[in-house]
Amino acid sequence: MSHPSMPITLSNQPAAVHWGQQALLSANQVGMTIHLPTNEPLVAIQQAGRQLANQGIQAITLTGHDWLLEFCWAFWLGFRDSKQPQQLEWPTLPPEQQQQLQQWCLTVNWVREMVNRPSASLGPQQLAEEVIALLRQVAPSAIQAQWIAGEALKQQGYHGIYTVGRGSVREPLLLTVDYIPVGTLMPRYSPAWSVKESPLTVAAIV
């Protein structure tokens, strides 16, 4: 079931006095306005997003020309609530910024899903597969990945990972990912994930 969408605008002007001293939010016949302070506007926008979510507002449209990429991101971080369905309509952004915003949201939601997933259903190989799937959604033509698992870790000199991981019934795994942007020949970043029966350990080599 869809809800009527609440338009939200930004303003550098303070709210009218009857909304209170240094009020962050005010309302009018059209929707609501976030009044930005001169310092730390991103913090204020995130706080406003959280206040609106706490009021039970489930559908919002960010309107006006003042919504920069960073402002949209800050609002989403405050507004998002995993306990109730929400609808958020973005303002018009350049295509590359729209893509970047979607990738940021995708990554935050992915991390939350991985943290909350029962460990029994997320062994080292399953986690490595999830990592690769995420990265290929974000940069499908720039990712090359491979992993070393089980006894192969010992054979190739990764004794620390092998020793720590062999205590589990599920074999440990080292995942390496090369990020190679289109038009380049060498990896720009070479992160390595050491995946054991413990939280994911990440080391990035730039």
**What is the terminal-to-terminal distance?**
47 Å
Number of strands: 9
Mean pLDDT: 85
Largest sheet: 5 strands, mixed
The proportion of strand residues reads 15-25%
In the sheet with the most strands, the strands line up as 2-3-1-4-5
Unreliable parts: 196-206
Structural class by secondary-structure content: alpha/beta
Helix content: 25-40%
Written as H for each helix and E for each strand, in order along the chain, the element string is EEEHEHEHHEHHEEE
What would you call the shape? elongated
Tally of DSSP helical segments: 6
Radius of gyration: 22 Å
Keywords:
206 residues; alpha/beta; five-stranded mixed sheet; four-stranded antiparallel sheet; 6 helices; 9 strands; elongated; disordered C terminus
Give a written overview of the molecule.
There is one protein chain. Helix content is 36%, strand content 22%. The protein is an alpha/beta fold and 206 residues long. A hairpin with a 4-residue loop joins strand 2 and strand 3. Helix 1 packs parallel to helix 2 and helix 3 packs antiparallel against helix 4.
Summary of the model, kept short:
The protein is an alpha/beta fold and about 210 residues long.
Q: What's the SSE blueprint?
A:
Blueprint: E1 6-11, E2 25-27, E3 32-35, H1 41-54, E4 59-62, H2 69-79, E5 87-89, H3 95-116, H4 124-138, E6 143-149, H5 151-155, H6 159-165, E7 173-179, E8 190-195, E9 201-205
